[in-house]
Amino acid sequence: MATSGAPRLSLPLLLPVTTLLLSLLLTSSHALSPPRFTKVPVDQIGVSGGVVSFVCQATGDPKPRVSWNKKGKKVNSQRIETIEFDEGAGAVLRIQPLRAPRDENIYECVAENSEGEITVNAKLSIIREDLLPPGFPNIDMGPQLKVVERTRTATMLCAASGNPDPEITWYKDFLPIDPSASNGRIKQLRSGALQIENSEETDQGKYECVASNVEGVRYSSPANLYVRALPKPPGTPVVTETTATSVTITWDSGNPDPVTYYIIQYRAKSPDSKYETVDDITTTRYSIGGLYPNTEYEIRVSAVNTIGQGPPSEPVETRTGEQAPASPPRNIQAQIISQNTMMVRWEEPEEPNGQIKGYRVYYTMDDSQPMSLWQIHNVQDSIITTIQSLVPQETYTIKVLAFTSVGDGPFSEPIHVKVLQGVPGQPSKFQVGAVSDTSIELTWEPAYEKEGIINYELRYSEGSFGTQMKKTFGPTSSYVVEGLRPNTEYHFSLAAISNKGIGAFTNDISQKTLQAKPSAPPQDIKCSSTSSTTLLVSWRPPPLESQNGDLAGYRVRYQVVGPSEGGGGDDGEPTEEPTVPATEEQVLLQRLEKWTQYHVTVSAFTAIGPGPESEPLVCRTDEDVPGAPPRRVEVEVLNSTALKVMWRSMTPGKQHGQIRGYQVHYVRVENGESRGLPLIKDVMLADAQEMVIGGLKPDTTYSITVAAYTTKGDGARSKPKLVVTKGA
Question: What is the model's pTM?
Answer without folding.
Answer: 0.50
